[in-house]
Fold this sequence. Notes:
The structure holds 2 protein chains of 2 kinds.
Chain A: H1 2-28, H2 36-52, H3 59-79, H4 85-104, E1 108-110, H5 117-123, H6 131-152, H7 154-164, H8 166-171, H9 176-202, E2 204-206, H10 213-228, H11 233-256, H12 264-301
Antiparallel strand pairs in A: 1-2
Helix pairs in contact in A: 1-6, 1-9, 1-10, 1-11, 2-3, 2-4, 2-9, 3-4, 3-9, 6-7, 6-11, 7-9, 10-11, 10-12
Chain B: E1 2-13, E2 21-32, E3 36-41, H1 47-55, E4 62-67, E5 70-71, H2 77-80, E6 84-87, H3 101-108, H4 125-136, H5 155-167, E7 173-177, H6 185-202, E8 205-209, H7 213-218, E9 222-227, E10 230-236, H8 237-241, H9 245-256
Parallel strand pairs in B: 3-8, 3-9, 6-7, 7-8
Antiparallel strand pairs in B: 1-2, 1-4, 4-5, 9-10
Amino acid sequence: MVYVIQTALETGFLYAPVALALFLSFSILNIADMTTDGAFVLGSAVSAMMCLSGHPILALPAGMLAAAAAGFITAFLQTKLSVPSILAGIITNIGLYSINLMVMGKSNQSLFMVPTVYTLAQEAGIGGSWSKVIVAVLIVLVLCALLVLFLGTRLGLSIRATGDNADMVRASSINPTFTITVGLCVSNAMTGLSGALAAQSTTVADVNNGTGMVVLALAALVIGETLIGKGSMVRRVLGVVVGSIIYRCIYAAALRFNIPADYMKLVSAVIVGVAIAAPAVRRWAAFQMKKRRALAARKEER
Amino acid sequence: MAMLELRNLSKTFNPGTVNEKTALSHLNLTVEDGDFITIVGSNGAGKSTLFNAIAGVFYVDEGSIVLAGEDITYKPEYKRSREMGRLFQDPMRGTAPNMTIEENLALAYLRTAKHQHAFFSRTSKADRAFFREQLARLDMGLEDRMRQPVGLLSGGQRQALTLLMSTLVPPKVLLLDEHTAALDPGTAEKVLKLTKEIVAEHHITTLMVTHNMHQALGLGNRTLMMDGGSVVLDIRGEERAGMTVDGLLERFRTGAGKALDNDRILLS
Lengths: 302, 268
């Protein structure tokens, strides 16, 4: 049981930045950013190559920077070249597959016996068997703090307003092209950070590791927003992290019941589908109830 | 001095198709500094199109727009809005519903020169006190609800807030596109009173579209009537002071060669 919780915490925090990235792009900017899968692997790939050349710490900002560049391309396609936003992400994503292969030189890169931030932490004697969890927790908490601070700045407010009311943004002398670009760069940088950490944690970067990442992260995001709800920015951001951990608990529990790991993608798809459809279903049910009552009342009158 | 000069503006939508529509046709207008102009006209006369052209929602096909001596014909919308305030009929368009009152005001405050490039600056205590003081003048109790999302406010409150936001940093030109038409009479009255106060206080050059003929003659110092994408009547001074609603309609009929046709016009 302790092992299950430890694994859930570790992976929950590990993948939390992707959920935070979608919080920024999907919840705040109102853009479904399909770059996510490729950006995650790009972060992994860059991180792995940096580790191999002996820079495990530098690997994290490098992975973020590379993924931010991917986000920039998606933003450029949709703002300047009028490519529909979902298609812009898909285009970048498919291109990234080749880029990722180029970065690694092959389809996967093992970091077995290569120094990573985790081995450095262990050598420094941080946390013993919990050192992996502690490293991830620290990084994610710093990231959360920075994100909340960022969203409170004028630039952050502009990004939030862009997703909320684009008319109003232009009327406030802010260029939506600029805010969308910054937003997607920052969100993909977070995805890249998660990829960079994941490669070092699992000691492998694989070109296929990102498949479906966008849906898994959406599941975490939706769980967080449903359970913790809306409110202040601090609460919403922490809610996303909690959502990521809960999702990984479900995942870990499912594995304990011997559900094959491959089936988890179906589980995630169902969670996301149900959660996003829920308001529409609720409206429909409420309308049916109302209709039935109104018709019944009319019958009684007769 | 002319604050806003529109020279020979033309705009045709969907040219070469069955939906072709000439929305502005060789329109000329000189707006003096401090003018408060009311604009009336038939359906489809080009009133909103004129505002969109001035604000830069689209670029005109022909002609030029000069704001305070600067040619802004090809300046993008978001850059023009640094010097222009704009209110629409729909009170939902001017504010971000999921952000708090304070955050909305902070965004409006971005237009000030000193904040323009301060991307990472945050709302300071002084800013907050200033917002509070400005909200208090609306007399709607909003100064005590600064942390609430704007989506919780009524249409009238949102429109009053939008008015405050577009004038927080006094613009060179304020464009009001029937901004009280969607509000209930009491609230409309209040928003209009605020508009008058704020415009007078900062001496803001204002253009206002209305379909209320009494408003058109009672507010401001100049009245325009539009038809077919151009200005057919421009009255001010003594002529305007002695003008009645009936007289105005008659002048329109002789000027445009047809009766004013606006299904929402309010004559009383």
